[in-house]
């Protein structure tokens, strides 16, 4: 969860200016969301009376699966696949693909079961059977963000004016830029990106401790990162990061499924 106070009047930050050293800003009296845009699940938080609170955005739960389904008619469906009969146009784990070129990501896309092609500018596009069209991971992310922002606005009864969004420690400039593009397309232009290890340290209040080093482990649905942070006078700085951008819960699931198939003598063609 991103539990952080931020100045909502800041302008959209270009990816080239995205820094690892970030001071903890102060919330002004406007509705600013903290969005954890996860590979597997997403959630939204707000600050109330100086304390973070998760909003219940999915059937009285604060967590919603990061799954977007495009039916033949109507708008996109977000979250659980309950009642979705045709999942061929359902997309999950697209966070692993956002902002990446076809050359970089087509193998990952294929491992996730998607049909991919090289789009304009060499970027990756995914085929959506229900729409008979090709979609970018950025476009799919926009649909998820629109749902999160709309659900938060409905609960608060007020317009959302800005957001702080977490991104993995090792997201590239292109991936950060694509995330910002998705947020803009979702209707928000006052946005601040926050590295996930810093978000974790802030959530634990570690910025208030005396100067020192902090080690953050981040094992998510798509990545495994280890980050070394330094805290000094309310500033958290990422000193070093290591990890694997292709190791996470998705990979564990895939290996377990493969083991089950091998143990039972089945093939993927026999399983629906």
UniProtKB/TrEMBL annotation:
Residues forming coiled coils: none
Tagged with keyword Nucleotide-binding: yes
Highest taxon above the source species: Eukaryota
GO molecular function, one term: ATP binding
Record keywords: ATP-binding, Nucleotide-binding
Keyword Membrane: no
Record's protein name: Uncharacterized protein
Organism, scientific name: Apatococcus fuscideae
């Amino acid at each position: 969860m991103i539990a952080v106070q931020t100045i909502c009047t800041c302008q959209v930050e270009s990816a080239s200016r995205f820094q690892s050293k970030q001071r903890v800003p102060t919330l002004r009296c406007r509705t600013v969301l903290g969005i954890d845009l996860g590979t597997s699940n997403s959630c939204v938080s707000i600050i109330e009376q100086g304390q973070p609170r998760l909003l219940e955005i999915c059937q009285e739960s604060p967590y919603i699966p990061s799954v977007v389904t495009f039916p033949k008619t109507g708008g996109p469906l977000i979250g659980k696949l309950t009642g979705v009969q045709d999942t061929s146009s359902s997309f999950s784990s697209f966070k692993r693909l956002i902002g990446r070129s076809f050359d970089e990501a087509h193998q990952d896309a294929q491992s996730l079961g998607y049909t991919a092609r090289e789009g304009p500018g060499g970027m990756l596009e995914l085929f959506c059977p229900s729409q008979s069209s090709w979609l970018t991971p950025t476009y799919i992310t926009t649909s998820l963000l629109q749902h999160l922002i709309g659900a938060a606005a409905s609960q608060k009864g007020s317009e959302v004016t800005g957001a702080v969004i977490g991104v993995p420690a090792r997201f590239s400039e292109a991936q950060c830029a694509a995330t910002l593009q998705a947020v803009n397309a979702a209707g928000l232009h006052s946005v601040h990106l926050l590295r996930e290890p810093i978000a974790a340290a802030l959530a634990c209040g570690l910025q208030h401790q005396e100067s020192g080093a902090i080690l953050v482990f981040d094992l998510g649905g798509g990545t495994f990162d280890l980050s070394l942070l330094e805290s000094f006078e309310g500033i958290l700085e990422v000193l070093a990061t290591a990890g694997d951008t292709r190791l996470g819960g998705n990979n564990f699931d895939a290996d377990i499924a493969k083991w089950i198939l091998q143990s039972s003598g089945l093939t993927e063609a026999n399983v629906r």
